[in-house]
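Reopening this one. Same input as before:
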Amino acid sequence: MTARPIVLVTRRVPEPVEQALAARFDVRLNREDRALSAAELHAGLRNADGLLCTVTDRLDASVIGTGPLRCRILANFGVGFNHIDLSAASAAGLAVSNTPDVLTDATADLTVALMLAVARRLGEGERLVRAGRWDGWRPTQLLGADVSGRTLGLIGLGRIGQAVARRAALGFGMRVLFYTPRPPAAEIVSALGAVPCESVDELLPRADFVSLHCPSNTATHHLINAERLARMRPGAYLINTARGDIVDERALMDALERGVIAGAALDVYEGEPAVPARLLRLDNVVLLPHLGSATGATRIAMGLRALRNLTSFFDGTGVPDRVG
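Same output, byte for byte:
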C-alpha cells in the first residue's frame, strides 16, 4: 500500500476541513493553534510533503533555506501570499497556491461594515454604552457622516474591489471611482458604473471614502504615505481590508491625530498582531483583528479550496490556483 502524502497544517482550520484533509492525507495538525516559529516551519518543509499554510507563516528565504526539502507544495489558506517568498519557493522547487473567489463576498461585506462604522462613529458609541457613560439621547451627540450618496474611491478593482463597488453603488447610491494598473474588461467596468482615474493621486482628492483592494508587493509598499494622505479630503475616511504594509502606519497615525483626514477603519496592520498604542488611543479609527474572511462558511470554503489544490497536485493533475 502506497503511503499517503504527509501534509502539515500550520494553524487550526474548521473541523469539516480537517476531516476532509485527514480522509485524503496523513495530516499533522497544530492543535495548539499558535503561530509556528521559523525553525518549526523549516522542520515542516523538511519532513512533510506539503504545507497548508496561512498568513501568520513567514515563509521567506531564510525559512525555506537552500538545502534539500521533502515538501513540494505550499497550499496557502487565503488569497494574499505576500508572506511567501515566491522566488525562494521556486528555487526550492515548491509549488505555491492560494484560495481566490471564495472569500470575495465576506471581505466586501466587511469593507462596507467598516465604512459605516467609522463614518457613523459606531465604535465610539458602543464604547460609550459599555462604559456606562451614556446619559441619554441629545441632538448633537456623536454626529457622524453620511455614506449614502457620497463618493467611494477604490484602489484596486479585482474581485473584492468589484464586489465592494456593487454594494456601494446599488446599496448606498454612491459614486464609484477606481484606480488599478490592470483594469478589468470594459464590460465589467461599465456594468459597475465605475469611473476610472489615471493615478492614485488623481483619485484621492475626489473621494469621500478611499478603500484599498490591491495586493501587497514592492510596488504597493507604503502606497498610502504622508504625501498621499495629505491629498485626501479633510473629511475623508481610509478603509483597509487588504494588507497592512500598503499603508505607512506612522504617517496614518500622524494624519489622524492632526485631523488631516476624518478617520480610518483598519482590519490589517503593518506588524500584526501588534497594533501601535497610538492607534489604540485614537477615537477616529475603527480597529478589527483581521476579520475580512471570518465567516464559518467562507473559512470552510477556503480550506476546501486549499484541499483541492493539494489533491490535484499529488494526483498529478496540476494546481488549479497556482500562483508560483
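So the earlier flakiness isn't reproducible anymore. For the record, The mean pLDDT is 96.
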